[in-house]
Each structure stands twice: as structure tokens, then as C-alpha cells.
Amino acid sequence: MIKNFLKLISSEFQLMIKGSVFSFVLYCLLIISCAIFALSLKDESMEINTRLSFLYIMIFFISLFKVEKIYDQDFDEAKLHQYLLSPFSLEIIVFVKNMMIYLNLIIFFFIFSPLILIILNIDLTYLLKINSLLALSLLSIIFIASMTASITISKNNRLSLTSILTLPLFVPILIFSMAITDLIDFNTGKMYLFFVAYFLLNLAFSPLLTSFALKKLSV
Amino acid sequence: MIEVNNLSFARGNTLIYKNINFKIRPGELLLIQGANGVGKTTLLSNIVNFIDPLEGSITYNNLVIDNHIASQSFLYIGETNFAHDSLTLNQNIEYWLSIHNVKFNNSIKNKSVSYFFQELNLDKKFYQLSFGQKKKLQLLLLMLVNKPVWILDDPLSGLDDRTIINLNTLFEKKLENKGIIILASHQNINLNNYKTLQLK
Amino acid sequence: MFAITPNALSNFMISLSRYVILLSLVLISVSIFLIIFLENDYYQGISFKIMFIHVPTAWLSLAIFLVMGISSIIGLIFKSPTAFTVARSLSPIGLIMSIIVLVTGSIWGNLTWGAYWVWDARLTSMLILAFIYLGHILLLYSFEHFQKADFAASILAIIGLVNLPIVKFSVDWWTTLHQESSVLRMGGPSMTNDYLITLLVSFFGILMLTIFWFSNIFYIIVEKRKMERSILLND
Question: CB–CB of C148 and A216 under 8 A?
Fold first, then answer.
């Protein structure tokens, strides 16, 4: 069982690598929109908060799209039938999938972040801080996004992109990320703690609710 | 033994079927037939407990089928393909075998691959295959995963004559070993002895 | 609650609703009478009288969400159709309550603070509550099959229930402009008695109206389902 689990993880990793073209496209979109944003406030000296808020909101939308795409592809009916009959519980598969999406997005962000910061005219001394805060908050974002994707990708659903309806659920993360930009010069230890606690809360809830929703809604 | 009592099912506001009763003992094959839209696929997914029936009960060895029993003893092959498009054949086989928690053995794998595919490059991408070849990849699970009950949704469509003969021998072997096969199909199968259920 | 069939609850509620609407009309007319004859506030003039709609609806919109979340949890755990139907019939009421809170609040805010809207802790969390209600309703009606819709919407309600305290806590990070609670607080209420009595009378009036409304929506849903099911099985 453990050997097969490791094999499963390695297969999921391969799958993630194959799917990273989509992430690359999304990050190109991010860079283009950051460039347009920076261009539009060329002469005005916008505060660093505004630039960082823009970055956070874009990253948030990117992860929403990515999660929705992966869930749409990898949890279609035929695959879900096999997952349901597997000895591994669906919660574990969902967890592995979420972690792979997270890895994919965060690695791309680490690669692109210097470029993005330069485009947005943010001092590169903030690089480490921004990266580590984003790495922590992205975990929670992906776990919430998986819940909302699972309740909205169902083939029985008449509306498309309904996960936009569930945007209010992301508000804590967004608010805290904005608060970070206020506090970026101060000690952010409390923030890290909040993100870890919020992630643990999501870890307890999210795979359960996601797999439940997939079982009930998508089969 | 699978026993179905007084089963009915509705999707949304339309009744798909009602009052279905049958019994299958080990070593028997049930062929579910009927026109399009009478609920063959729905009946199968009802048996595997993917969806809950409106009324009635389904039992396996006198136990009501839940997720645990289903995952222990059922192998379900549906109409649509479950393979990942971006992986190669070999990677796909490995992926689904690890999902089904099968001890991986290269020689058995190669034997079963050569049983269905005469000569095939396993490093081909999945999307490069033809429809029949994709179907065969699904059926490969029948040989590699060891579960007592097979539930197959239209396994014969798109296969060439040679593969259908091979599949029939597989069915015969399974029935000799006291397995249970339930299959929904429009075609008849070349077996001496099987039950049919006509859905209306 | 999870052993009761939807049918029994709907019969009970509908038989009760006659008395409830009577009581609610009496209470609301008494409260209107009281509000008219109440002295104007020294600082705020007549505008503070909007409080007697604003505060009860604010309490109710939070209470309704709590009931909705709890009944969603019960529904998911015990697979109880009654609990799902309770959640389904409560969400439109909650949405309208929270919209009333936002509208009356912003009118009041314009009269006293001089701005219709500020991004303050209370206001933001109430707005998010309204959005979650809206999402719940849209999710309910985006599925063909009502059971699937119930499952999806109840998951949303549970996530919302978990998230709402966090939203509240996170927006408290910023300084707040909204006044402190003056009724439900440590050391007893801080208003004078005549204000408090008027507030409570209007609260119970609106509560009774809500119960009446809820029992009617519940009854309609249950009857519609019964009809569909009978058509289904006798086809």
C-alpha cells in the first residue's frame, strides 16, 4: 500500500509537470497585466501597498483558474469512478492533487517573482518576505479553491464559473494579505502564525468537504 | 451473490426505472439489454453504489453495498475513458494500477499487454491511440486488477473480432473461477450460458 | 430534528403560522406606536429611529445564518431532508434581512457619519454575509436536481459558517467606526428602558414575521416536492 502510494505520488508529479504549460500561460497573463497596471500609473508614485494588493489579487485569480481547470480535467466522471473504487480514500487523492497544484504554482512564482517585482517597481529587498508570505497564504487559497471547484464543476450545474460566487470565502486571506502590505516593514511573525493556523483549519475541513462534494455532485 | 430487490431510480423529475428484481450467483453472467435511454448505465452505477437508489435495496453476499464493500470487490469499467491524455501508455497503466493498489509486476503487465495489443509501443501518448485501442487500454484493467465482481458498461463497442474473441475467453475464465460479471451491451455475446435482463 | 419528516414539520409550522402572523401584527403595530411617541435623540434627532429596524434585522440575519449552518451540518451528517429544506427555505429570508440591514445602515450612516459606506469591520462582514447568502441561493438554483443542489449549498453554508467568525476577526484588524454593542454586552444594556423595550418589541415583531414567512416557504417547498414525487411514482 505504501509503495503504491509513493508510486501514485510520483505519477501525480509527472502529471503536474505535464500540466505546467497552463500555469506558464497563466503567469504570462499575470506578467502582462502587471505591466499594463504599472504602465497605467507611470508618473504617479503609487504606494507599495497598492502594487502589492494588485499582485495578490492577480495571484488569487490565477490559482482559482488553475484549480478549476485541474479539477475539471482530473475529476471527470470516468476518472472519479475509478477513484471511488480504489482502496485509497478520495480525501487522500484530493490532498495529493492539491499539494501538486500548490507546488506547481509556487515554483513558477519563485521563478517569476524577481521579474514581477521589477515590473511593479517594488524594491527587491522585499523579495524573500513576499515570497514566504505568499507561499504560506497560497496553501489556504488552494485548499479553499478546491472546495469551491468541487461544488461548482459538476456536470449538473447550469451556470459556468460559479466559483466566483464563493469569492467571499477567500476574504480572510485577502484581508490579511492586504494587512501584510501595511506591515511589511514591521515584524510579521504574527502573520505567519495566522496563515499556519488558517491552513491547518482548512486542512481539517477541505479534503473532507471536497471529496464529499465530488462524490455527491459529480457522479 | 448479488441480489437486487424492488429497485427504482429517478433523476431529477423523471423516473428512469422501477421495480427491478434479479439475483446473480457466483459463476454467472448477467447481460443487461435495452434501447438507448432506458437506464442501463444508471442501473450499473446504482449497483456499484455511485448513486443512491430512490427505493429498494442491493446486497452483495447479504450485505448492503456501501463504499467499502464496493471498493473491495467491484471493478467497474465505464463507457467513457478514464486515462490521462497527457501521460504515455506506460505511465497511464502504472497510474491506474497504483490507484487500484495492485502489486506491480513487469512480466505480468507485458503478458497482458501482448494479449490485447499484438505489437504496441508503450511510450506512445494516450491521445495518439485510436478509439478501439483506447477501449482496449481500459479492458487491460480486467487482467491486472483482481476483484471478484466485474461490472462492465458496453465493453464490446469499437473492438475488432479478434479482441472480442479474446474478451470472451477472459469472461469464460472468470466464470470458471466463480466470478460474477454484469454487463450492459447492445450486442449479444458468444457464451453458452448467461442470463439476460431486458429493461423497458 | 433529524427524525422529523419534512411533511410533519410543514404541517406543524403551517398550523402555527396563523397565530404567529396575528402576534407579529400586534407586536409590530405596538412597536410603530411606541416609535412614533418616543422622544427624539438629543444628538441624532429623528434619524436614530431607524435603529428599530436596523438592529433587529441585523440580529436576525446573523441568527438565520447560524440556524442555516447548523441545519446544513445536521443534514449532511444524518442525511436528513428536513434539515436541508430548512436551510433552503431560510436563505432568501436571510438575504433580504441582510439587504435591509445594509440599506438602513447606510442611510443612517449618511445622516450621522456623513458617508453612505465606509470599509469598516461591521459593514464589511455584513456585506460578505449578504454575498454568502446570495451565493447559497444561486447555487441552490444552478442544479437541476434538488438533492444535488442541497448538498452543494449546504457545503457552502458550512464553509461560510466557519469563515464568518474569521472574517469578523480579520476585519477587526482595522480600526472601527461603528458603535459598540449597546444591548448584548457585559454588564447589562447601556440604553434607557423605554428605548430597550421598544427595540425588543420591534425585534419580536420582526422575528414572528420571519417565522411566519419561513413556515410558508417551507410549506410550499414540501408540497411542491410531494406533488412531483406522486407524479413520478404513478406515471
Answer: yes
Query: Which of A8, A81, A83 comes nearest B78 by C-beta?
Result: A81
Q: Which domain holds residue C104?
A: 53-175+188-233
What is the count of structural domains for chain B? Answer: 1
C111 at A interface, C-beta within 8 A: no
- In a domain? residue C123: yes
**Which cell goes with B75?**
471493478
Phi-psi bin for C81: left (phi > 0), alpha (psi -120 to 50), beta? alpha
**Alpha helix locations (H) across C48-192?**
51-78, 81-112, 121-140, 146-171
Tell me whether residue C29 is in a domain. no
Report which of C65, C10, C4 is spatially closest to residue C216, judged by C-alpha positions. Answer: C10
C47 located within any domain: no
Mean local confidence (pLDDT), A139-148: 88
Give tens-digit pLDDT for B76-123. Answer: 988 888 888 888 888 888 888 888 888 877 888 778 888 877 767 777
The domain containing residue B143 runs over which residues? 2-198
Best CA proximity match to C35, nearest among C195, C209, C181: C195
Core vs surface per residue B9-28: b (16+ CB within 10 A) or e: bbeeeebbbbebeeebeeeb
CATH number at residue B85: 3.40.50.300
Classify residue C151: in a domain, yes or no.
Answer: yes
Contact list in A for residue C142 (CB cut-off 8 A) is 157-159, 162
Partner B, chain A 1-40, Cβ-Cβ below 8 Å: 1, 4-5, 7-8, 11, 14-15, 18-19
Nearest to B87 among A18, A77, A82 (CB): A18
Q: What is the pTM of this model?
A: 0.84
d(CA A134, CA A177): 8
- Residue numbers of A between 123 and 182 with CB closer than 8 Å to C: 144, 147, 151-152, 154, 156-159, 162, 165-169, 171-172, 175-176, 179
The total number of structural domains in chain C stands at 1
> ipTM of the predicted structure?
0.89
